[in-house]
Amino acid sequence: MERAAAVVLTVLLLRGFECSSEASPGVHCLIHDEDYTECTWKETGRPDRNYTFQSRYRTGAEYAECPSYTQVEGYNVGCRLEYSSNIRFATFQVQLSSADNTAIWNKDINLKPLVKLYSPVNLTVVNSRSNGLYLYWNTSMSKSQCLESIVRYRSSTDSAWQSSPPFISVRYFDLPFADGEELYEFQVKIRMNEFCGASDYWSDWSQPVYWGSNATAKGVHCLIHDEDYTECTWKETGRPDHNYTFQSRYRTGAEYAECPSYTQVEGYNVGCRLEYSSNIRFATFQVQLSSADNTAIWNKDINLKPLVKLYSPVNLTVVNSSSNGLYLYWNTSMSKSQCLESIVRYRSSMDSAWQSSPPFISVRYFNLPFADGDELYEFQVKIRMNEFCGASDYWSDWSQPVYWGSNATAKGVHCLIHDEDYTECTWKETGRPDRNYTFQSRYRSGAEYAECPSYTQVEGYNVGCRLEYSSNIRFATFQVQLSSANNTAIWNKDINLKPLVKLYSPVNLTVVNSSSNGLYLYWNTSMSKSQCLESIVRYRSSTDSAWQSSPPFISVRYFNLPFADGDELYEFQVKIRMNEFCGASDYWSDWSQPVYWGSNATAKGINRRDKSFDPSVVIYPIVGSAVLFILAWCLIHNERLRIILVPVIPNPGKNFEELFNSYDGNFQEWLHVSKDIVDGFKPNFSEPVCTVRERAGSVSDSCGGPGGSVRSNCSLLIPGDDPDCISTSSASSSSTLPAPPYEV
User: For residue 513, what are the domain limits?
Assistant: First the structure.
């Protein structure tokens, strides 16, 4: 039994795999800083099934299963193995297999170049007055002789990084002639060098370290929020390399004061929040940022006057004045109207783009004349400090929108029937709406509007509604109404539900190999009525670079692919929708989960050969055309070659000129045939032609002889108009044929 199992396993290994239902990306391994080895076979998402990972070092030992799997949704996607230095230079053999051994990969991996070290840490800059700046760092790799390093750096006036050449065996870098008025930023990356087995992988760049001052374009950024508070930040995203201390003062001779309230990420300071008073906005604001060991220091003078960002306007309200159009009103947290500059943008349901008002100052309203009550209008407002109160560079964010009108032909509520299971209507695709809306609907049957029985919510705000579905309402007009609590925003819309059906994807795809008719693909659907379905199948083999799609077909749940190659791996997917016999839908289902059939995949999964551009497709026609052109040219200009390749057909007319010209076409004379031969073909005899006539009664006595005999020279006459005999004679002799004898 063990021998038979070994034979079967060997056959499977030689074939690569027997049948796979997923195009696996293969096994990829990496040694993390001589700390552990990680092998993965699914970089993103969840695989189609659970795989078992086994490995061994070529020492004759048995395969050992992974001791610690990495999983996604309960499915194995990777393996973490312990690392020991004596195995890095051995050949690492891995095997990946499914539970039923229908998918098996085998691969020999050379681990030597697959080492990625951890990034350097504890970067420190020391200023040596005689030799410039020295950058030092530590690494988790203790052997300096095994390291290859690169340092990159830039000053506050550099637009790009400058990099050192790679250097080995040291953990420091010298930058001479550093300018103390500039801000310098340093980073380091490392890898194993050739003395310890060169690696193909560099570490990630280290966290940066800084040195210098006068950070003209970098460092601390401050902003006044609506004259409420001042916020200064020095790390916009992520966690900084170490904790910084923030100090500030207004140029009044006072000492620097440390930040009273830090903003932190993972326990590290990334910003500071300061109280605001109007008398400091027009003073020069001095800030200083320093690390604990003072290896990184910024000093900066900041002009706060243009750095004010007001809060967005609120409580937008639209009032319809029948004589003057629409009036839009809003409130602001800034009480001084004379300090405000505003812009309003608006659009109707017929507009493809926003229209904006020119900037205007000192008022909190806007007039839009000639508004069409049959359109839906949307308004937003933004504001900033104007020049009378110290112009700001920052506009507020746009306010939450307010709406007015009806007949939202292109906006508002969107509905979709999910597989005749339920109807879903939404009015906010992403994020949270500005307020809570009430959704009401009815079918045009004279009934009252009914409120949504089950809302979909985001952060406590209604963004959609789920309704029960019944087949008798799909072909009726569906009326919906969306309104806010104070009815300042109302949509009314009639929706035709017939084309708004999206079926669930097909399931249980199965491939059956019919030796006589190729492959048959079968599937099931939640829609029981086959006659209502329209389907499309797409498929590709392991040698195809793109999908091939079938034409749409209806009323069946199978597909035939003839002439499938058993040495290829085929992948199939299906999508469906309602066809025209049951009310055509505009929505196709999502593609089904793929199903696979076939074999012939490499150790890295499916070997989809790159069907890149084949130059022969262009070269062959060009060469053929050139040959034909050269041959034609030679035939025209080289008579000898033309005669050889295209022989001249003889003209028989030259041999018969005497026949037509001298003998006027008389063939006998032209052949010189003698008269005797010609006369020999003429007849030289004659024979009479007798007419037989019929007479009433017995044969004439003139024709009868003694005893009733008939004379031999008698003719039997039949009445007629022709003469008795017609004689034809020749020139030489004549003869008479006697009448046949008659016996009575």
Answer: 503-598
